[in-house]
Amino acid sequence: xxxxxxxxxxxxxxxxxxxxxxxxxxxxxxxxxxxxxxxxxxxxxxxxxxxxxxxxxxxxxxxxxxxxxxxxxxxxxxxxxxxxxxxxxxxxxxxxxxxxxxxxxxxxxxxxxxxxxxxxxxxxxxxxxxxxxxxxxxxxxxxxxxxxxxxxxxxxxxxxxxxxxxxxxxxxxxxxxxxxxxxxxxxxxxxxxxxxxxxxxxxxxxxxxxxxxxxxxxxxxxxxxxxxxxxxxxxxxxxxxxxxxxxxxxxxxxxxxxxxxxxxxxxxxxxxxxxxxxxxxxxxxxxxxxxxxxxxxxxxxxxxxxxxxxxxxxxxxxxxxxxxxxxxxxxxxxxxxxxxxxxxxxxxxxxxxxxxxxxxxxxxxxxxxxxxxxxxxxxxx
Amino acid sequence: xxxxxxxxxxxxxxxxxxxxxxxxxxxxxxxxxxxxxxxxxxxxxxxxxxxxxxxxxxxxxxxxxxxxxxxxxxxxxxxxxxxxxxxxxxxxxxxxxxxxxxxxxxxxxxxxxxxxxxxxxxxxxxxxxxxxxxxxxxxxxxxxxxxxxxxxxxxxxxxxxxxxxxxxxxxxxxxxxxxxxxxxxxxxxxxxxxxxxxxxxxxxxxxxxxxxxxxxxxxxxxxxxxxxxxxxxxxxxxxxxxxxxxxxxxxxxxxxxxxxxx
Lengths: 381, 262
Known about the structure:
The complex is a heterodimer. Chain A has twelve helices and ten strands. By secondary structure, chain A is α+β, with helices and mostly antiparallel strands. In chain A, the strands form three sheets. In chain A, strands 1-4-5-8 form a four-stranded mixed β-sheet. The radius of gyration of chain A is 21 Å and the shape is globular. By secondary structure, chain B is of the alpha/beta class. Chain A: Residues 122-217 form the Acyl-CoA oxidase/dehydrogenase middle domain.
């Protein structure tokens, strides 16, 4: 066993750190208060290769491994959790399903613009009345000649607000239960594709989370991804990658919080000594650092499995569960170390806490992750 | 155009510098090492010249094993070739030793231009580019803020002088050193980083260049470090209290007689 980053993994991490500190950090607070990441910056990130990270070079991607992509998402989240989820979702559930399940024509038509950052990718399963219970979705796709007509409402679609390429999950065979769900590639320019209300969120406010309404949205049948009934399989596969991304995002938020807390603890005095000299503060920092390291190792293990084409459903779920729960605790403790300043909008600690909160909810709640993990370990016994 | 860029790996400018236990070197434990920021301008300028005129870019460094990481970063930015003159006696070598080694390495290659950063961040001697030019008997313009090729073997290089700029015409081959503002260095892309893995780094020893261990490090240097000291700790600030009128009078008195600023 070898736990050591390669030279190019370190180089990738350094590049993203530089880009984030120089190009993004100065704008983060504006983005959050405007509730918008300006689309204009996307081609810059695409040029760096961040919009098709694990897609092989032959398809125009950067061809890096999942371990590197974890480092990328962590570094982005250290500065902006909103940008981290935007890029993570675009890669893991936008680009990846088209690459893995798409035909050559679909790849040509949809994957290239995604990688170039001309279109932003999103994945729409959740509906107002169907979240964790995926099989309860109501959106329907009815075949009509050489087209499908889609009708339904999708909620909480990360990146849904940008317009671009959406992978829509819809029922094609109502009698078949989960096996009656299919995936479709839908361009947001299609008639009947309506980008509806923006969700008013507690955190990651700059992330474009919207409702999408499909109203007699007619798409060519060649936009079916994979085969009819494969929707659930595609979703579960893509979500493994998505979960690794959210784990990395949660780690990045935690890292930022602890860095700030350490800085503050060394600068602020109370009772005649630095905060950092109080054992109560040291214990909080030590626990936080230990949680971050554990989360990181779990996440890298899941990424390692994915890099080697091994099953990683359990490990991705564990990484996501642990890293997200840890980030809530770590950001709260960091805020506590800051005291009243932590509660103030003048410092980013309150933002870290708000941003971390969503990580135990999206890409499968902590409860769903536990179900996945339990199912896997019980099956193995 | 054959372009050579000499770079140095230095501690990140944001790193906290600690003096090592021997009292004359920097403790590099836990310090991030980067390509000296001024060298990045030189790398960028070389890439732009190559993109405009064609040719080849080669980056050279003189340094220990770890310096290969800095070469790798230049390759990731788009540089074609890298040469690493490996030597552990690098930190204790003075500017002239460094310049002699680099000049010897440069001589093994064809070149039209040799580019440097104006100084290696950290030591900040700003001597090596001029010394290399002298050793190679080449014309030089240093601390360049604007560079333009005007023919196959002629260029305009501009630098700032007190209150203005000086524009120099220079014959190639030549040495230039880059100042901040010459350009905006690009970030390496993910593809560039992946492609850099496939570019080999040519390793050389000082012996390959005709040097012996006696000619480098402290033994070969005319200038040696006796002692490194951190800057003195900042004295604690003074708070002046009282009525504004008296406080201002007191402040002026302190500025005049204690700080001697007025």
